[in-house]
Amino acid sequence: MMELQGRSIVKEVESVIGASVLELAREHKVDWGFNCTRGTCARCRCHVSEGMEHLTEPAEIELVRLEPEEIEAGFRLSCQAKVQSAGMVKVRHRPYF
Ligand code: FES
Fold first, then answer.
1. Domain map (residue ranges) of the chain
2. What is the best residue among 24, 26, 77, 93 to mutate for testing ligand 1's pocket, by most ligand atoms within 8 Å of CB?
3. Which residue of 5, 14, 27, 91 is most buried, as measured by CB atoms within 10 A?
4. 2-93 CATH choice from 3.40.50.300, 3.40.630.40, 3.10.20.30, 3.30.450.20
5. Per-residue pLDDT tens for 12-23?
6. pLDDT for 22-31, tens place per residue?
7. β-bridge pairing 75-77 and 10-13
């Protein structure tokens, strides 16, 4: 399962192995800003408060785009973070602005 918290909505959805957090948010109509889907704009930045182990390791572009402290604190780019195993994941959309 995945709990997705957008600006005005929280939804619990079935997580799908291989799907990105952004794909799941869009599919389930959670208000989740994004622009490029390539890891460069950071509009899709999110914070993972639970279940990071069920997501893929940060992609190369996330390591470039996000500060090491952000990665350490649980921030990810939702267009890059993909589900890799079953289990509860809690994610909140947290863009810079
Ligand atoms: S949509 Fe641009 S970085 Fe994710």
1. 2-93
2. 77
3. 91
4. 3.10.20.30
5. 999 999 999 999
6. 999 999 999 9
7. unpaired
